[in-house]
């Protein structure tokens, strides 16, 4: 039987099951009463791992939650079509399918063969975690012009091979491979 977690013991970035769905605790705040006999309350900002919905909810400190049946597996990106995106589980060699809604804008950071973490709930894929950095080639960017720094802007837009548009320093040229931080979509360096 899965262990039970008290609301007061929820950890930031930890997982718990609420209303038959897996949730991730984004933030928590504990309110202790000043009067005798008052209830200690735990305000939790949480994200549904299946739908992506974010919710603020207040629980009594002693409320209990099950640990969700969550697992993360290593997988490599194969391709996408109208039915979704396909990944190859690296341990079972099973093909996993994620819908467009589950993918969000992650496709902008994926090339064939990119390694990701697929999140599964009760054995079914529900989402993915991208690597911290990806290396992509700049497909198009305007050439730097002398004096561009006078406006205070020292970056320019660049279109990557995946179609994503990011801001890069002026010295970066078309055809170069750069490193991008997947969470913030920011330039992290040349490769």
TrEMBL record:
PROSITE patterns: EFP. Keywords: Cytoplasm, Elongation factor, Protein biosynthesis. SMART domains: EFP, Elong-fact-P_C. SUPFAM superfamilies: Nucleic acid-binding proteins, Translation proteins SH3-like domain. Residues 134-190 form the Elongation factor P C-terminal domain. Belongs to the elongation factor P family. NCBIfam families: efp (TIGR00038), PRK00529.1 (NF001810). Involved in peptide bond synthesis. Stimulates efficient translation and peptide-bond synthesis on native or reconstituted 70S ribosomes in vitro. Probably functions indirectly by altering the affinity of the ribosome for aminoacyl-tRNA, thus increasing their reactivity as acceptors for peptidyl transferase. This is Elongation factor P. It comes from Bryocella elongata. The lineage of its organism: Bacteria, Pseudomonadati, Acidobacteriota, Terriglobia, Terriglobales. The gene is efp.
